[in-house]
């Protein structure tokens, strides 16, 4: 398949490389990132899109997605599929899909879960919104780049699934870190804490698969000085998207709102930027109850 790939950073680069390694003809464009092995360099985003059967984008935010769509939609051949794998606001995803469909293109919003490691290993999960026909066309590519693709519904449904999932993740990671910090102060051994919670009703992905306590559970960023697998600033971005969507939908999400405020403080006012989102644990270790002014407010 002839593929255009726009956005070749930490996530997009490995994804494009996996497609090229599988034998697809991939033309790539990025303003700064190097070309992955096997990917042909295009001079512009429009050039990458010309003649492609599928164009995949992996971009930082909805405003950039809309800007790139303005450039590539006119360059794409009728019947091609515009597959955006960025994590953006639902409104931008739906607006770009409508623009693509009006031009005779298929359109998918297909944000991913699995982080940089999953992108390199080809084990991502794709949450996909769009038509059945567009999903069926791109499904073989999802199977190369990931281990699972779930067709969630119409345009925007993929982004909705992603932000709801990551709101849960942000909230549960905070709760997990709080619990470890409390266990420390109660004199409970961290390994014993893990042995109980990981097999009891406190079970969660944050505890069992991505434990924030170094030396406990499977290998995680906590065992590597909290070097990011999923950076705290990216979690903040996703939580803010969840609250933007909650506002648009008139949904009451008090825990999501509080998690957003906590990650905003951690990233913007403390030392969380550049660390993994699980580095909330050392943050809570250093704090006492009297310092918890956010909850009090």
Give a verbal description of the structure.
With 297 residues, the protein is α/β, with parallel strands linked by helices. Helices cover 48% and strands 14% of the residues. It has 13 helices and 9 strands. It has helices spanning 12-21, 45-49, 62-72, 90-102, 115-121, 132-145, 157-185, 190-197, 205-208, 232-249, 254-268, 280-285, 293-296; strands at 2-6, 25-29, 40-41, 54-57, 81-84, 106-109, 112-113, 124-130, 146-153. Strands 1, 2, 3, 4, 5, 6, 7, 8 and 9 form a 9-stranded mixed sheet that branches. The longest helix has 29 residues, at 157-185. The chain starts with a strand and ends with a helix.
Identify the notable features of this structure and list them briefly:
single chain, 297 residues, alpha/beta, 13 helices, 14% strand
